[in-house]
């Protein structure tokens, strides 16, 4: 080998070493965290059909799968109505709900609402009788007892209505996605309950019934029995995910969202006002291109948001716009391109997504400068842009998404392949504490937390870790 060649090789080696040093410096300077926490490797196992959480309540035709659902704006602008939904399995029974501020005794409840019922077939499955009953003219911040099942087996529950919307009204949300019904799902729900939120913002993918042969719809029933312990006592705000589609032409099932739509009488895109928050729910699997109904609605809705009255603007979507995980990589991109501009202009505070079965939080970034000829197509730090979080880490049967892209992009502040849930604790118009809790820790442990300052009232303040 000639001296010249040998010298050139040494030079190549030097260049390689310098390259890695440079990469290291860039990574350190960027300071995004890919958490080194490694969950112990274990199968994500669905709870068996005879698990305690799936037990059918005793008594003939007993109401089961009881849940509260918020009505959308503008039908229920202020949160003084609530839909109660439940299923009876033996026969239709009564769709009446009796309720009361004063008495937990169903015999003495003085208020009454009449509901409706529906049922559906899915391949060879026939659902129970699904009841939906709307309670109206509720007072704010008031505890109500309610009961149903009259004529057969009566069950009663209670809930507290949300406070009157106002700029400084404190409220604590749970942020849960892609829950499913495994032992991990049960840990997630238990930890959320221990952390004590007032309502859940649920970012889609509920039961994962479609992962079973014939989309076994009994898994929609078991899931709803499983979450009843929370959902019958506080509203969950529902977002439709891909596992709600249940499209199966091979089974003769051509209507998208059939089981979900029968069971959860909620629109696919809508908004609710809760305390000091205006929550906008988007539908990743409904059309959102220009001139579509969702596009028209969102444009009008963002103009209706009154940040003086409800300072916190929160957007829920199933497929994330900012996720650096290899799983479902860039699936949310077309919706981001369509809507990010509006969301940034509206100074939204937080965009919550699921779909990817891991946890991630972004810095405040935007990527709206691109106009096809200027080539400016990279996310840039933007003080008044929202924070994006992905909480598709509820713990479903598909397991963890542990394939993050490398290196961690600069917009990503924290990411970890573990199951868990998040909470958003709004204190007043300017401050809210966001926290993520991994399932391997005690419920109260904060694995990733940040004080968010409101983008309307404090648009130039940075968040504090
Ligand atoms: C689920 O969690 C609840 C509350 O922590 C517990 O009582 C129940 O036994 C758990 N069920 C299963 C199947 O793990
Ligand atoms: C539906 O069909 C499957 C497969 O043939 C069978 O295992 C299941 O028991 C059937 N379910 C009902 C409710 O008939
Ligand atoms: C991991 O993600 C990358 C994209 O970042 C993809 O190319 C690769 O196929 C993924 N690997 C697995 C095992 O899914
Ligand atoms: C809002 O809450 C934060 C955090 O608790 C507190 O530091 C701040 O002083 C509060 N602002 C007002 C106006 O009360
Ligand atoms: Fe999903």
TrEMBL record:
<keyword id="KW-0862">Zinc</keyword>
<dbReference type="Pfam" id="PF16656">
    <property type="entry name" value="Pur_ac_phosph_N"/>
</dbReference>
<dbReference type="GO" id="GO:0009505">
    <property type="term" value="C:plant-type cell wall"/>
</dbReference>
<keyword id="KW-0408">Iron</keyword>
<keyword id="KW-0378">Hydrolase</keyword>
<dbReference type="InterPro" id="IPR029052">
    <property type="entry name" value="Metallo-depent_PP-like"/>
</dbReference>
<feature type="domain" description="Purple acid phosphatase C-terminal">
    <location>
        <begin position="385"/>
        <end position="445"/>
    </location>
</feature>
<keyword id="KW-0479">Metal-binding</keyword>
<keyword id="KW-0732">Signal</keyword>
<dbReference type="InterPro" id="IPR004843">
    <property type="entry name" value="Calcineurin-like_PHP"/>
</dbReference>
<dbReference type="Pfam" id="PF14008">
    <property type="entry name" value="Metallophos_C"/>
</dbReference>
<dbReference type="InterPro" id="IPR008963">
    <property type="entry name" value="Purple_acid_Pase-like_N"/>
</dbReference>
<dbReference type="InterPro" id="IPR025733">
    <property type="entry name" value="PAPs_C"/>
</dbReference>
<comment type="similarity">
    <text>Belongs to the metallophosphoesterase superfamily. Purple acid phosphatase family.</text>
</comment>
<feature type="domain" description="Purple acid phosphatase N-terminal">
    <location>
        <begin position="78"/>
        <end position="160"/>
    </location>
</feature>
<keyword id="KW-0325">Glycoprotein</keyword>
<protein>
    <recommendedName>
        <fullName>Purple acid phosphatase</fullName>
        <ecNumber>3.1.3.2</ecNumber>
    </recommendedName>
</protein>
<dbReference type="InterPro" id="IPR039331">
    <property type="entry name" value="PAPs-like"/>
</dbReference>
<dbReference type="InterPro" id="IPR041792">
    <property type="entry name" value="MPP_PAP"/>
</dbReference>
<dbReference type="GO" id="GO:0003993">
    <property type="term" value="F:acid phosphatase activity"/>
</dbReference>
<dbReference type="InterPro" id="IPR015914">
    <property type="entry name" value="PAPs_N"/>
</dbReference>
<dbReference type="Pfam" id="PF00149">
    <property type="entry name" value="Metallophos"/>
</dbReference>
<dbReference type="GO" id="GO:0016036">
    <property type="term" value="P:cellular response to phosphate starvation"/>
</dbReference>
<dbReference type="GO" id="GO:0046872">
    <property type="term" value="F:metal ion binding"/>
</dbReference>
<feature type="domain" description="Calcineurin-like phosphoesterase">
    <location>
        <begin position="171"/>
        <end position="359"/>
    </location>
</feature>
């Amino acid at each position: 080998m000639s001296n010249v060649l040998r010298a050139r090789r040494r030079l190549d080696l030097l260049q390689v070493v310098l390259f890695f040093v440079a990469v290291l410096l860039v990574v350190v300077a960027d300071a995004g965290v890919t958490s080194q926490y490694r969950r112990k490797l274990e199968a994500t196992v669905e709870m068996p059909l005879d698990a305690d959480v799936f037990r059918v309540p005793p008594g003939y035709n007993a109401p089961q799968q009881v849940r509260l659902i918020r009505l959308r704006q503008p039908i229920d602008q202020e949160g003084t109505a609530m839909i109660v939904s439940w299923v009876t399995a033996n026969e239709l029974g009564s769709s009446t709900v009796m309720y009361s501020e004063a008495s937990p005794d169903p015999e003495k409840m003085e208020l009454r609402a009449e509901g409706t019922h529906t049922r559906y077939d899915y391949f060879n499955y026939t659902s129970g009788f699904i009841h939906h009953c709307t309670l109206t003219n509720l007072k704010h911040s008031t505890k109500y007892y309610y009961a149903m099942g009259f004529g057969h087996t009566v069950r009663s529950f209670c809930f507290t209505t949300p406070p009157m919307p106002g700029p400084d009204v404190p409220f604590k949300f749970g942020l849960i996605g892609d829950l499913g019904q495994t032992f991990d799902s049960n840990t997630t729900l238990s930890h959320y309950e221990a952390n004590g939120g007032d309502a859940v913002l649920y970012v889609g993918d509920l039961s994962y019934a479609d992962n079973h042969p014939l989309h076994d719809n009994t898994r929609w029933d078991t899931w709803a029995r499983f979450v009843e312990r929370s959902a019958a006592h506080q509203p969950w705000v529902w977002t439709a995910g891909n596992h709600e589609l249940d499209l199966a032409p091979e089974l003769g099932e051509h209507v998208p969202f059939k089981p979900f739509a029968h069971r959860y009488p909620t629109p696919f895109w809508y908004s609710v006002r809760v305390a000091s928050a205006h929550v906008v729910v988007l539908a990743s699997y409904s059309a959102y291109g220009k001139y579509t109904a969702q596009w028209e609605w969102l444009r009008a809705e963002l103009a209706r948001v009154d940040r003086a009255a409800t300072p916190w603007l929160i957007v829920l979507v199933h497929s994330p716009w900012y996720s650096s995980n290899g799983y479902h990589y860039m699936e949310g991109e077309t919706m981001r391109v369509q809507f990010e501009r509006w969301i940034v202009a509206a100074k939204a505070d937080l965009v919550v997504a699921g779909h990817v079965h891991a946890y991630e939080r972004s810095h405040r970034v935007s990527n709206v400068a691109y106009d096809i000829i200027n080539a400016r197509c990279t996310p840039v730090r933007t003080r008044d842009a929202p924070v994006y979080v992905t909480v598709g880490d509820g713990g479903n049967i598909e397991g963890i998404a542990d394939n993050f892209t490398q290196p961690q992009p600069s917009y990503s502040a924290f990411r970890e392949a573990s199951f868990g849930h998040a909470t958003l604790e709004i204190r007043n118009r300017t401050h809210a504490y966001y926290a993520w809790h991994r399932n391997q820790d005690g419920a109260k442990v904060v694995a990733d937390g940040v004080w968010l300052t409101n983008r309307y009232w404090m648009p130039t303040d940075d968040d504090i870790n």
